[in-house]
Amino acid sequence: MAAQKGKDLLLKVDSDGLGNFTTVAGLRSRTLAFNTESVDVTDAESAGHWRELLGGAGVKSARVTGAGIFKDAASDEIIRGLFFNSAIRNWQVVVPDFGTIAGAMHISSFELTGRHDGEVGFELALESAGELTFQAA
Fold it and tell me: Which of 72, 82, 90, 128 could link 14 by a cystine bridge, Cβ 3.0 to 4.6 Å?
């Protein structure tokens, strides 16, 4: 994958629960991280006493973080409503020339920030809440 502009990575939410995706407005930074827990099966007879892991086991998860500004009341309302209702909704992370990661996620953190001489900003974190899919670009 060649170098990409960070601004082209999009975070979209199923805004009405009916499959209509809306880009989360004003994101200035975004991060997508995948994780998996290891299952240690090391025992007294492990070669050289090196740790052994069980392939294909463990729990997979993903975390998406973003920070930016709300550009309109609609995007503000969507995020706020999902957070305060503890709603799990389908999200998409679109990475240009790579693909789209999609699936159910939950807003695990929502912060508002502001300076006396600047705009109100927000930070949010999403945690996967089910199987995620990948569709190549």
Answer: 90
